[in-house]
Design a protein that fits this description.
This protein is mainly alpha-helical. The chain has one domain. Helix content is 63%, strand content 0%. The chain is built from 7 helices and no strands. Helix 5 crosses helix 6. The N and C termini lie far apart (60 Å).
Length: 131
């Protein structure tokens, strides 16, 4: 039965050999526990669009990382996303779990800094909560 998709088996073996750091990242764990899903927020504010406003930016970021800079090739990002969602983000709804998995991969690869991400999140939160 392993001959059903030998390319996937080879990819899994190659990716596992890279030793993805699946350990928890505090800022992402905080989001996972205290964050709110788009579905919840859109219901609260009466927004009918089922897609969060940041979904297109997320998809574009994934495309750019894969195609332009090759900082995170698409196949690797998807494999890491699957692995991280199985272990850390399974209870987070989609597309929020995709966003957390991408942030996890970027932090572990040193492409973004956890403290800098937390700082930017605080700035965005302040702007959103200005009344």
């Amino acid at each position: 039965m392993t001959e059903i998709n030998p390319e996937k088996i080879e990819l899994d073996q190659e990716m596992e050999s890279r030793n993805l750091d699946k350990s928890a990242i505090p800022v992402l764990e905080k989001i996972k526990k205290q964050g709110r899903s788009w579905k919840e927020l859109s219901n609260q504010y009466g927004v009918e669009n089922p897609d969060p406003p940041w979904k297109i930016t997320l998809e574009a970021t994934c495309d750019v990382l894969s195609e332009v800079s090759c900082a995170l090739p698409g196949i690797e990002r998807r494999w890491e996303e699957d692995e991280l969602c199985d272990q850390h983000y399974a209870d987070v709804p989609f597309p929020e779990r995709q966003l957390l998995a991408l942030a996890h991969s970027l932090i572990r690869r040193g492409l973004i800094d956890e403290e800098d991400l937390a700082k930017h999140m605080q700035e965005v939160s302040k702007r959103l909560n200005m009344v």
